[in-house]
Specification:
Structural class: alpha/beta
Radius of gyration: 21 Å
CATH topology of the largest domain: Rossmann fold
Number of helices: 19
Strand content: 5-15%
Number of domains: 2
Bound molecules: Double cubane cluster
Number of strands: 8
Strand order of the largest sheet: 2-1-3-4
Order of helices and strands: HHHHEHEHHHEHEHHHHEHEHHHEHEH
């Protein structure tokens, strides 16, 4: 029998009616999108369990951490250094959401035509439907895109927001700015948690988070095989869960999954036929439970072999150098690692173009699908640069612009099927 968490939800201040509506959406969607897949690895059981307890057990863990004096810090971008949060004994939680709930409330403070990711986090906070948000006493924003930057001013009316200034270029002076932002963040996190960050706890934290990223990289490496031993949908789910699960447990479970996948690879046991078109997805992050486009792609007979997304490679492809011998060196190493992220908020963003060409080769991809959220200027406009470079290299591309609604599903299916037909 399922545990009744209503008392806990009520205590942390959720609107139980609105939250009940949200919880009704998830199980049927999950069944259709995930549990309907055939030949899934047995080790996916853990990740299915995590989703089934998405607002239960993990929230209980956060509440226990808080009642023992710990802090929970929410983030909206993979640019926020989680190593620093962890070193200070706090738990870092990614708050981006991939579902449109609370849109009416969000539209009271935001324009109607705004990126769904921004509208969604504002809606979640205003409608009080997200126990992760309500567990955070502080959230960290960034100045990556204009929409988020301005939305954080409004969000600050409802929860304390610390904003990190992320540079828009990668010159030496931009690096210096970012290093100083990271140093300021250390001070802010120390003040907030009451815990000092020192060489010992930062090195431990760097190692733990590196291990998490390395486990995800191991998983990504296994997907280079043909046939792919795991679906793109399952891989995306794991990359989404990486944003909020317990770091050590998650790392262990991803490595266990990889052990199983290695056996699958040896037995030539894939989730799709060896001749299934191999697709790389690139673009804006796909926050949980936004599985619409991957579901369409894999239902049409293709297999997604990599995500050049922040819920994907951009999150784990780089690790922090572990050889810092003093605190400053370690903090600089963290700052440097984060500047390796190729977000479209940078200009120019050539690293992303080079990466896509390299990934297409490494993963033996037949095509790339560029998927951007509506009203996301950085990615929608940068799609032009992506198109130009991929054309020069003869890599087929399909560009999609969508939101969190299901209204365009039929149209997207038709376009994806036509694209797959073309590259087969
Ligand atoms: S590092 S991609 S997580 S900023 S989709 S809110 S950009 S209008 S999410 Fe992102 Fe960090 Fe970059 Fe990654 Fe704005 Fe675009 Fe919306 Fe976006």
């Amino acid at each position: 029998m399922a545990t009744d968490y209503r008392k806990m939800w009520d205590k942390i201040g959720l609107d139980l009616d609105a939250h009940g509506q949200l919880m009704q959406v998830l199980p049927p969607t999950y069944k259709d999108v995930y549990l309907s897949q055939s030949n899934r690895p047995d080790s996916m059981e853990y990740f299915d369990f995590v989703v089934s307890e998405i607002h239960g057990l993990r929230i209980q863990e956060l509440q226990e951490h808080k009642s023992n004096g710990g802090k929970v810090i929410g983030t909206f971008c993979v640019f926020v250094p989680e190593e620093i949060i962890r070193a200070a004994g706090a738990i870092c939680i990614g708050l981006c959401s991939g579902v449109e709930i609370g849109a009416a409330q969000a539209e009271k403070v935001l324009p109607r035509n705004v990126c769904p990711l921004i509208k969604s986090f504002m809606g979640f906070k205003l409608a009080k439907v997200c126990p992760y948000f309500e567990s955070c006493d502080m959230v960290v924003g960034e100045t990556t895109c204009d929409g988020k930057k301005k939305a954080f001013e409004i969000l600050n009316d409802y929860v304390p927001v610390h904003v990190m200034e992320t540079p828009q270029m990668k010159r030496e002076k931009d690096r210096a700015l970012w290093r100083s932002e990271v140093q300021d963040f250390v001070v802010r996190v120390e003040e907030y948690t009451g815990n000092q960050i020192n060489l010992e706890n930062i090195q431990r934290s760097i190692k733990d988070v590196n291990n998490k990223r390395l486990a995800l990289l191991r998983l990504a490496g296994l997907r280079k095989q043909n046939p792919a031993p795991i679906s793109g949908k399952d891989s995306l789910l794991i990359e989404q869960i990486a944003m909020y699960d317990d770091v050590e447990r998650f790392t262990l479970k991803v490595n266990e999954l990889c052990d199983e996948l290695e056996t699958r690879v040896q037995g030539n046991n894939g989730v799709h036929a060896a001749d299934a078109p191999r697709i790389i997805v690139t673009g804006t992050p796909m926050a949980i439970p936004n599985w619409k486009v991957p579901h369409i792609i894999e239902s049409a007979g293709a297999v997604i072999v990599a995500e050049e997304l922040c819920t994907g490679l951009r999150y784990f492809e780089n690790t922090v150098a572990e050889n810092g011998t003093n605190l400053d060196q370690s903090i600089d190493a963290i700052a440097e690692r984060y500047l390796g992220i190729n977000c479209a908020c940078f200009t120019p963003n050539e690293g992303r173009m080079e990466k896509l060409v390299r990934l297409a080769k490494e993963y033996n991809a037949d095509g790339i699908i560029h998927c951007s959220l509506a009203f996301c200027d950085p990615y929608l406009i940068e799609a032009n640069r992506v198109e130009k470079v991929l054309k020069e290299h003869g890599i087929p591309l399909l560009k999609i612009e969508t939101d969190y609604g299901q209204e365009d599903t039929g149209q997207l299916q038709t376009r994806v099927e036509a694209f797959l037909e073309m590259i087969r």
